[in-house]
Amino acid sequence: MIHVSNLCKYYLSGGKQTVALDHVSFDIKEGEFVVILGPSGAGKSTLLNILGGIDGLSEGEVLVDQQAIGQLSENALSFYRANLIGFIFQFYNLIPTLTVYENIALMKDIKKDILDPMYVLERVGLKMHAKKFPNQLSGGEQQRVSIARAVTKNPKVLLCDEPTGALDSETGSMVLQLLWDICREYRKTTIIVTHNASIAQAADKVITVKNGKIKDIQENAHPLSIQEVEW
To answer: What domains can be seen in the chain, in order of their start residue?
Structure first.
């Protein structure tokens, strides 16, 4: 599903070049549950933004579903983001003036072949909150709405940037269980960027990033379920 080869990302500021990613290479199979680990500033979010078509690459090759995203035009990138990628962020980015259902049903304006919003709300345990507004929900519930929104779009890849960073451990575990279930049930390639090493125990593949480089890649032949992870 994803092939990254010698990916580099440079930023210029005040005439000085900063290396955010330095010859990064890895592969991710369809339906894998992948964790990208590393400290703040390691390049994790930059890597996720490039995979999502939000940021461009400086050198190397990135193939997602056989598309070389570094060579796509702006229009093609917009189509790529709308159809192939589902984003889930640390902060939920819900529209406060829309109900839970309306926040999710917005996906109909982006993509035609979406999943039924009420069905997905039921799957994430929030069908009874469909008519509520985001400020009437807890943080964990709002994050589940953001997950439902991403899943409703029916993307091939879910990109999750610190999805539990703003949640307590119990609620975070519940959200991770939901992502893990979605990955397994719908075979969505799921990539989670985090600094929480415990999550790695449930991953099919763990990619560790440090100072813009791949420090280690490990595959778990027998990943734990989220319920088995020691937090």
So the answer is: 2-228 (3.40.50.300)
